[in-house]
Amino acid sequence: MNPKYHKQLGKLFEDELIRENGGPSILCDIYDKLTDGNDYAENCLGENFNQLIQCIRFDFFKNYKPSTETTIEFYFGTYNYWLYLIVERFEFIFEVLNPEGKYKHLRDYKRKEYRTFKKIKDWCVFYKHPREFTFAHWPKYVFETDHKKIQVHKKRNDTIIDYDYVERNFTKNGLRLPMLENNPNIVVILPDLHELTRSFIDELIKFIDFICKNDFIASILKSKSTIDDYYKELLEFIEEIKIQPDEGSINVEITRNTHDT
Question: Tens of pLDDT along the chain (261 residues)?
Fold first, then answer.
């Protein structure tokens, strides 16, 4: 795995998903919407999404240091899994909003507008539930941008597992794949991670807008994820915070309001 590729991907991720001040992610827009300017309130939905983004930002892109010896199947599987954790929460929210899929307009909206989310989930299914791929001999992995290697495999008539193959064969329960058994000529073509990340970001922004620009949807989610007086006791007890620099250190003095109620 090329470390420069990792760095470029991390820059794309941070530039698009982290607010200009370099702190919280744009997923905090959900937090802001579902707390509605109430300083006492806490919203776990927006915060949990934000924390997942921060995990990927820091633990994967900043703290993790892949080398040229890092295999692309490991790199893709790890990154895709963390994206999948966000997608799975998205999926559950739609289960809450559309139980048993009874509202056709919501089913159609989800299917048409979030195709990359589905792709991320489907690849995760392939990794988690390999079926007859378990019996493959030394399968190769390449990115779809590596056209020369892909042409070599095609000329040799190797078995190609790309996203179309995964969607067609690994997302249907009970489907058997005997052509993969004892097969020494299999190549897995993984998606271009720059393209996948850009599409993921576009759909994530769309999802944020779906919540933040729809008061009815927001009200449903707020009722399940916001505590209106979460910080009330703390803020009422803190009357004054004094910051006093002291020879290079900072002392913080907190005066509590002890008036009887």
Answer: 999 999 999 999 999 999 988 899 999 999 999 999 998 999 999 999 999 999 999 999 999 999 999 999 999 999 999 999 999 999 999 999 999 999 999 999 999 999 999 999 999 999 999 999 999 999 999 999 999 999 999 999 999 999 999 999 999 888 999 999 999 999 999 999 999 999 999 999 999 999 999 999 999 999 999 999 888 777 767 655 554 555 555 565 655 554 454
185/156 Cα distance (integer angstroms): 9
Written as one letter, the residue type at 91 is E
Report the candidate in 93, 98, 104 with the shortest Cα–Cα distance to residue 46. 93
Could you tell me the pTM of the whole model?
A: 0.88
How many Cα atoms occupy the beta-carbon half-sphere of 182 within 13 Å? 1
* Of residues 204, 77, 51, the one with CA closest to residue 141: 77
Inter-residue contact 51 to 28 (CB < 8 Å): no
Spatial CA neighbour of 30 closest among 45, 12, 15: 45
- Among the listed residues 67, 63, 121, the one whose alpha carbon sits nearest the alpha carbon of residue 92: 121
Hey, where are the domains in the chain? 3-129+191-256
